[in-house]
Design a protein that fits this description.
Blueprint (H helix, E strand, L loop, with lengths): L1 H6 L7 E5 L5 E5 L6 H18 L3 E7 L9 H12 L8 E6 L3 E6 L7 H19 L2 H5 L2 E7 L15 H4 L3 H24 L1 H14 L5 E7 L5 E7 L9 H11 L23 H8 L7 H7 L3 E3 L6 H4 L4 H4 L8 E3 L1 H5 L6 H13 L3 H17 L5
Parallel strand pairs: 9-10
Antiparallel strand pairs: 1-2, 3-5, 3-6, 4-5, 7-8
Length: 384
């Protein structure tokens, strides 16, 4: 098979140029596949379309990396391109994920209740087509898998960053921004621990004297790009509480079914939560329970400024566009939401503020939010 492909290498010299808006040109071999750069743009476009339509985005991945020790990259790419031709719909989008290793096929307009059926049918057609144009040995070494956005399991695992090439692309400006933000976090985290050291000495004693249980509350939260980490707070609740009340509240809130309060606007947190201790109400009112998160900042799990890290069962109810608040930046102790509306906003308003922060981020914006945070804390607006 390799010899046959080699004899027909004349097709390798033929190039196809795709002229894109803005004068950008993407060049790919004439194998009927979008180039890597162009396919990344298609992924972003289809992800945003899926977010608007609230339909899943299904991508079939053909991984032929195991063939790399026998066939050249161009031979593998051409073989994969031939393998998917004739078995897909005209609206499906095929392109390179990695030259000579894998290609992706975006299966457009797949209804959520038909995902499993579509996967089964497309996988069989593709496998049959591969068998018709490739050797049995090659077919057996090609792995066919499916990636779905958003994950149908509710995002219980780390997010699939294949769907976020617009966030994962690395350039010098992004690297410089990351270094500046991390430097601010380290300096601010150390300064915060020194400044608030009296509270770290007094509050543990008060918590121990007023209720049973550990001083620190530890909880698994969802951080940057869906990664889990152990979130720290001073304990403000009674020990061994059932979280059913909060699970139900969060589910209703995200779906917009919480009845209005405070000038007819629903609030992000439960008011008069019976699980909270008297001391805990004071700690929450002035955000003193959040101080241990300075340790999370120094560990690199969080940032001083960023979207608040959600609980895992909260993310299970997120729509695709709402998940974007967790992409690209570490979660923060404070953020645009906290200094603007805090808990007295709808859930969607909070997400939109987080997305605005992410799209407009600068180190100056972080400094501005940090300077506005003390006043927001002292006002106690939306603190429960």
């Amino acid at each position: 098979m390799a010899g046959q492909l080699w004899k027909n290498r004349s097709w390798l010299r033929k190039l196809v140029c795709h002229q894109r808006p803005g004068g950008r040109t993407f060049v790919s071999l004439d194998h009927g596949l979008y180039s890597e750069a162009c396919f990344r743009e298609k992924l972003v476009q289809e992800r945003k379309r899926a977010e608007r339509s609230n339909k899943p985005l299904v991508v079939m991945v053909l991984d032929a990396e195991a063939l790399g020790d026998v066939y050249s990259a161009v031979d593998i790419t051409k073989s994969l391109g031939d393998g998917v031709k004739g078995c897909l719909r005209g609206t499906d989008i095929c392109g390179l994920l990695k030259e000579g290793a894998s290609i992706g096929v975006i299966l457009t307009e797949v209804d959520a209740d038909k995902v499993d059926t579509a996967k089964r049918i497309v996988a069989k057609k593709t496998r049959d087509r591969l068998a018709a144009v490739l050797s049995h040995e090659m077919v057996n070494r090609i792995i066919i898998s499916f990636r779905i956005y958003p994950e149908l399991d509710g995002g219980s695992g780390t997010f699939d960053m294949m769907f976020y090439p617009d966030f994962t692309a690395v350039d010098s400006r992004k690297i410089a921004g990351e270094i500046l933000k991390r430097s601010l976090d380290v300096i601010g985290g150390v300064a915060g621990l020194l400044l608030f050291s009296p509270f770290f000495a007094i509050l543990p004693i008060l918590i121990t004297l007023t209720s049973k249980g550990p001083v620190l509350f530890r909880q698994v939260r969802v951080g940057r790009d869906g990664r889990k980490f152990q979130f720290l707070k001073f304990r403000s609740m009674y020990l061994d509480n059932d979280d059913v009340i909060h699970r139900d509240y969060v589910r209703q809130l995200i779906k917009g079914k919480i009845p209005g309060s405070q000038n007819s606007r629903p609030v992000y947190k439960i008011q008069a939560d019976p699980r909270v201790t008297p001391l805990g109400r004071f700690l929450r009112r002035y955000s003193l329970d959040e101080l241990p998160q300075l340790i999370n900042v120094l560990k690199g799990d969080m940032s001083l400024v960023g979207p608040r890290p959600p609980i895992c069962y909260e993310v299970e109810h997120y729509c695709g566009w709402q998940r974007n608040r967790l992409i690209g930046k570490r979660p923060g102790i404070t953020g645009l939401w906290q200094v603007t509306g805090r808990s007295s906003t709808t859930f969607d308003d909070m997400v939109r503020l987080d997305l605005r922060y992410l799209s407009r981020w600068t180190i100056l914006l972080d400094l501005t939010i940090l300077l506005r945070t003390p006043l927001a804390v002292l006002k106690c607006k939306g603190a429960y």
